[in-house]
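User: Here's a chain of 660 residues. Predict its fold as tokens.
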Amino acid sequence: MGIDDRAGEGGAYGNLGNAYKSLGDFGKAIECHEKRLKIAIEIGDRAGEGKAYGNLGGGYHSLGDFRNAIEYNEKRLKIAIEIGDRAGEGGAYANLGNAYSSLGDFRKAIKYHEKDLKIAIEIGNRAGEGRAYANLGNAYSSLGDFLKAIEYYEKHLKIAIEIGDRAGEGAAYHNIGIGYSGLGQFDIAVSNFVSGVEMWNTLRSLLKSEGNWKMKFREQYEMTYTSLWRSLLRIGKINEALVAADQGRAQTLNDNLLIQYGLASPSSCATFDSKETTISPFTELSSQIIFLALEGLRINIWFLSRGQKVAFRQGKLEADITEKDPIHALLQAALRKIGAEVKGRCEDRTFDELDNEYLCSRELCKEVEKSCQCSDNPFRQFYDAVIGPIVDLLGSQFDELVIVSDGALCFTPWAAVVESIRIRTVPSLTSYQLIARVPKGYHKKTGALLVRNPCLKELEKPPPDLPCAQEEVEMIASILKTSPLTGREATKAEVIKRMSSVGLIHIAAHGNKRTGEIALSPNLGWTSTFPEKKDFILKMSDVQAANIRARLVVLSCCHSGRGRVLKGEGVVGIARAFLAAGARSVLISLWAIDDEATMVFMKNFYQHLKEGKTASFAVHQTMKCLRESERFSEMRYWAPFQLIGDDVNIEFEADNNDKN
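Assistant: Prediction complete.
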């Protein structure tokens, strides 16, 4: 390969690195810039070497490694001065200023940013000038000089609009909003945050159907969405704050649902108007809903009741603020008390490290000693912080509550928090609204796909069989009068093939602790010594690519409600993939479920469904049955199950079979 080609290759790596950084994938960005650096050194491209150092510094800064960021940017500065690259020199000063700001040395940061500004003006670099104004604004904002900060931010905004820098424009609106928030002028802050959100939504829409990129982009600009609803609350605009908070929730899931169902975007997604029509579609979704939004340990609670005005309350959790995620730590402590967090073969191991020794068996729960005292509910604090503030608002006929959780609260076993009522969860009000708007007849009423104990014996380290799962599915098959896919027949390919043609999907198998992804029988024809994960793991992408018409999906697997919690998007795991693919309702588990207890649970659950009860009622009554039993009364047995999405009925027909 010639030098010219190598230079082009290096430039391409640099561009890829910048693209990955804009999407928030900083690790991938650093990887690309390191490749560019290597090529630049090999071919003696000092300018390219300098740019690579600068970009690496930016990548490490984004990861919070400020010392490394300073080291790389000092190398960039040295090369820029050496070769007379004034723009590169200014960029190095900018990055050094940002690094020192992150270390809390704002006066030193300002000196670097002033050098950057001077160079940008000298060489007529309008983009660089705007960048310098933004960085100076950030430094002065950190010093509490909000008036001076706003002055610089407005100069940045003017330049961004002038040169068509839409990302810069969005950042400027956000920063001006932060400045006015610091001055206590929340009305002005709100108008700027609205403009910022509109700009981020516009840029995000350019990513088209790239779901992972959309989620990374949304997470990167989380603070604009959050600052908007928080500022609206500060000025008492309760309804508008709810609409703004919900607009920032589960955006990628909402996009998927709009495409899946062929629906127009609901008008409530795009406005912060206080008119009654903006909120009424949400208040009519269910009899009673609570929408939760975290602000540190404070929980903001909107209570929606059909035909009533939206009420707003607040609660607070008491947790160790030194923890990285105090609420998650509090929840984990409560789960350990009831024996829900079991030390199994997958504990503290990454998904990739698991290889074929893939998943925690449902049997592992049997290893836990009894530790739950019913008189001492470890989730009492969650009740006091979330349910306690709205108890007086609950109607006399109150029998169901729909919950929109936030952050680590998404993993809360709400049935253990409040046992007396039916509970469902939804990712956002908008996603619930979209599911509710699905045309009648879209979801199939009949036909069932039952998957029982897939055969994993061909794996290098096969997990144990699930004997009760086998009995569980046979029992359900007898109720439905259908034949299950079992053992070697339950291949990944066959399951995917059948998923789109049935109204009910029930899978009893092993589930991954972090994502809920499911182990099925390997497809035939693998070429390696042992099947690879792609041959047998039902991944989120596999599910999302399927056109699912099921009214109800039952994931009778360990951890089927788990996943990554992304800012705004919520839990991204296998359950969400089923919703995005078209399932109306999904029954999941939040931890490693006991094999025998799950069989008893499912037997009761399906008996209630057969009697014509809704899925929500069936879950609630089944939990009550287990609580009152002698053997499975402890929370760890019945509390992990949770219904996500709409409430549904299942039709049972005598002629129902697996060909439907």
